[in-house]
Specification:
Elements lengths: L1 E5 L4 H12 L3 E6 L7 H9 L7 E5 L7 H9 L3 E4 L8 H4 L1 H22 L3 E7 L23 H20 L3 E6 L2 E2 L8 H10 L3 E4 L6 E2 L2 E2 H12 L37 E6 L5 E2 H12 L4 E4 L15 H7 L7 H15 L4
Helix pairs in contact: 1-8, 3-5, 5-6, 7-9, 9-11
Amino acid sequence: MKVLVTGVAGFIGAALAARLLERGDQVYGIDNMNNYYDVSLKEARLARLQGRSDFAFQKLDIVDRQAVPKLFEQQRFEAVMHLAAQAGVRYSIENPHAYIDANLVGFCNILEGCRHSGVKHLVFASSSSVYGANTRLPFSEHDNVDHPVSLYAASKKANELMAHTYAHLYNLPCTGLRFFTVYGPWGRPDMALFKFTKGILEGQAIPVFNRGQMIRDFTYIDDIVEGVVRVIDKVPVANDNWRNTLSGVHTGSKATNHELPDPATSYAPYRIYNIGNNQPVELMRYIQVLENCLGKKARMELLPLQDGDVPATYADVTALERDVGFRPRTPVETGVAKFVEWYKQYYKIT
């Protein structure tokens, strides 16, 4: 199968491309190689892919309205895994236009490319951030997500809406994946594990937000990749049981959640899945595991909850396991140890 992976020099993109190549797929990767974080890390990830048979790379920005259609017309992909985006919750508060350009304009270009070139399945990265102000745990795809608390989250929710429109209008099969706090070797320097490791090793105080009273569904990169690969192969179809009106028995003036139209499926070929570890971990426990792996205690700067952040994430992965036969299982003790091993090797720390 010929697969386009956008954001191929990114953390998830590079790992996914390697896995697809290993199973015999033809991978065409694009990335704009921007400087949101250390470009040399992106180049190092890309170097591990280049030279492999059945892999091609093009430096391309998905915002480019002329280049993207040309790419789709020339290459004729069977499937697309769209990962290219402006990432980061906190950065969206500082630089909102970057998210409008990459996450909305860029995504529209990808949708149009898929539509006009007959792509059989578009899979795209959403985020656990879309759950925003929701407080019911675990987070379920079947719950409403209309209260984002960051522009990043709003852009990802918008992607889900845009994809549904294309599934409805053009019968383009679309699947959105809500990733939960991905970590592991070759990760992003702007994420907590990377920052914590660097700070502890350098003897610097690490920032611990909400004074450590946070819970995250940390999900190891290999589990994310396995889930993505299985979803790529699972082309969505219409849900014959989906309803667009309230039905059933009402209790007083309220309808139960099951009487509402399901946000995770549709009468169109469209699906949303969570990919999370389904084992939320307290932030202080995560730091303790890291301390054990490094053999060094952390100095912590306890700070209030940041704007745009949420105190807890926890993924319900029932639908993912039911439909593709997989659920993430890597414990943080295993995942953090593998990250530390990679970090020391990559940065030549003895």
